[in-house]
Amino acid sequence: MTSPPVRPSEKPAGAPESAPTSVSASISASISASRLQRALASDFVYDFTRAPIAIIAGLVVLFLFLVAILAPLVAPTNPFDPASLNLMNGFTPPMQANMFTGESFVMGTDDQGRDLLSAIIYGLRVSLFVGVMSVLLAMGLGVSLGLIAGYVGGWLDNLIMRIADIQLTFPSILIAMLIFGVLRGIIPPDLRDEMAIFVLITAIGLSEWVPFARTVRATTLVEKEKEYVQAARLIGLGRHQIMWRHILPNVLGPVLVIATITLALAIIAEATLSFLGVGAPATEPSLGTLIRIGQDFLFSGEWWILTFPAITLLALALSVNLLGDWLKDTLNPRLK
Amino acid sequence: MVIILARRIAQAVLVLLLVALISFAIFRFVGNPVENILGQEATVQDRNEMIERMGLNDPIPVQYARFVWDALHFDFGISYRTAEPVAELIASRLPATLELAFISALFALVAGILLGIFTAISRGRFLAGLVMTTSLVGVSLPTFLIGVLLIWLFAVELGVLPSFGRGDTVRLGFWETGLLTASGLKSLILPAITLGLYQMTLIMRLVRSEMLEVLRQDFIKFARARGLPERMVLLRHALRNTLVPVTTVAGLQLGSIVAFAIITETVFQWPGVGLMFINAVYFVDIPVMSAYLLLVGTLFVLINFIVDLLYLAIDPRIRDRNLRGGG
Question: How far apart (Å, rounded) are the C-alpha atoms in residues A297 and A93?
Answer without folding.
Answer: 12
